[in-house]
Task: structure prediction
Amino acid sequence: MTTTTAARHTSNGKGQPDSQVVAPKKSEWKRAMRSLYRSKAALGSALLLILLIIVALTAQWIAPHDPRAVDISNRMLWPVWTDSNSNPIYFLGTDSLGRDILSRLIHASQMTLIVAVAAVIASGLVGIFMGLISGFFGSWMDSIIMRLADLQLAFPSLLIGLIVMALIGSGVAELIFVIALTQWAYYARIVRSEVIKVRETEYVQAARALGAGNIRLIFKHVLPNALASMLVVASFTLAIAIYYEASLSFFGLGIPPAIPTWGNMIADARDVMLRNWWFALFPGLAITFTVLAFNLLGDWVRDHFDVKAE
Result:
């Protein structure tokens, strides 16, 4: 009976209880939460991004007006415009076509997050795959992939985006493709560096000697060690994707003007922003605070996991 109970409480072959094996994961999670709470900038950024996600998911219910409804009779109204009974009807005013800026701002958050998350997934998948091949197998594949990464990083990424979008046309899928094209090299270099450090360690060599294949070594030993570094790159890529969408849309090469985005709202305001400052102010503030939040959160992830720049 005692032997059975002891065997039930041991799982690592060294007589240690299961609770001792699981405890490090729980303690690491608690340590991360305490660290986030102590960092006021990171905590505020996380709360702001959570609020942004909630707004994006509930946009169709919380937006006071149709973001695409044109009403020429109410064009260029100032913020906090009131009706005849002094009830506010346009909290952030209207644009040159009479569309409610607050409603457009809320709905634009949906497209902003879609583009940012999809761009991170696309660039991350390509970059991680290339980095794994380059670092794990080395030889001529490493040289070719790293020279491609160096070539991509040698040119201003926004310039590459402008050229590619001018050639292939504007659209959501095209924009995601361009961001992935200009950001995959950062993932590739980070993953390659981690792979090179891990592949020669004793436990990887022992696993290989016991018959572990390349796929098992990559997904069980290599990628987990690169996770923290990839999270840092992903947080900055999210910020870059938002910046790219706004920049390319401002030049008319991003998402089509019919779709509400923060970049399109600023583009619509460029001819009248000196007289009607609120046209560009509110989407500009949305871009600024969102990008800043992603950057501050990325800094916290880098510091908390002690990720070294490669």
Summary: Residues 1-24 have pLDDT under 50 and may be disordered. The two ends are 54 Å apart (CA to CA).
